[in-house]
Amino acid sequence: MSWNGQGVILAAGVGERVKSSGLPKLRPMLPIGNKPIIQHQIESMKKLGIEEVIIVVGYQKDQIVDFFKDGKHLGVKIKYIEQEKTLGIAHVVGQLEPYIKKPFILFLGDVFFYPKNWESLIDIFEKQNATAVLAVKKDTNPKFKGLHFAVLLHDSGLVRRVIEKPRHTVSPLKGCGIYVFDISIFDAIRRTPRTAMRDEYEITDSIQILIDDGYPIYSAEVVDWYVNVTSPSDLLLCNLKYLAQNKVQNIIGEGTKICSGAIIENSVVGNNVIIEKPLKMREAIVFDDVRLIGGKGCSKVIVTTNGEIPCDIDESRLNE
């Protein structure tokens, strides 16, 4: 597919929960299958034919800029824009108006997902002459009702309402942090008020302004599985899903040395890791440059150069 649009990834947040957990990387740079989350996102954009990607950076931006550089090695051209203030998604998207002159796909930088009928996201946008298309997934689990925005539809299929973090289940459709917009979104953002709940400018409020103005807003069920990675347990869950999806037992990084007798099961081991003594490792992630000198086993943990982080995962989520 070849789509003449731009890609945007929002990767400027501090991510306090991840930071306080002991994980040494920004959320968008956390490794899944030994690749940063936003590398997976760029690869998804490339499947739509996108060649220009804007990455919004901020806190510890060098982690991102030093890794991706100009994007040439991934087959895209990357431009970096630094976020000056943290005032919500709508606010930061509004700051991009000088750099965007055509439709664009927007990703939140902590979203890891597996698509289905991925190209239909753009097909709907173009064939329906839509102003926006929201990637959604059906989910009736009340456990997650307040973690995402809900999407309500007219019988015609048009979106009639979006509700940020609803208290009650109002629709089986939840937003997934992936959007396609035309440039009309910028006018809506200029008219978006600051919310009382979080004192931010919410993109859902901007979308609702477009809906109320009569613009055609659609949803697309193009996400088969996804997680907003906000904790070590989320990261381990995504890596286990990655192994299952790719039908491999383990992924071992380049330059890694594992001693004879070590048993590695259902785990992802990063680059330049040294495992000096036999151990049994199961359902674990080992970050780059870790040196394991003891023979102690580990299970359901993330190992960084700072130590081990235990994870409590709900494995039923692997099959959601």
From TrEMBL:
Domain Glucose-1-phosphate adenylyltransferase/Bifunctional protein GlmU-like C-terminal hexapeptide: 248-310
InterPro entries: GlmU/GlgC-like_hexapep, Mannose-1P_guanyltransferase, NTP_transferase_dom, Nucleotide-diphossugar_trans
Protein name: Uncharacterized protein
Domain Nucleotidyl transferase: 7-236
Pfam families tied to this protein: Hexapep_GlmU, NTP_transferase
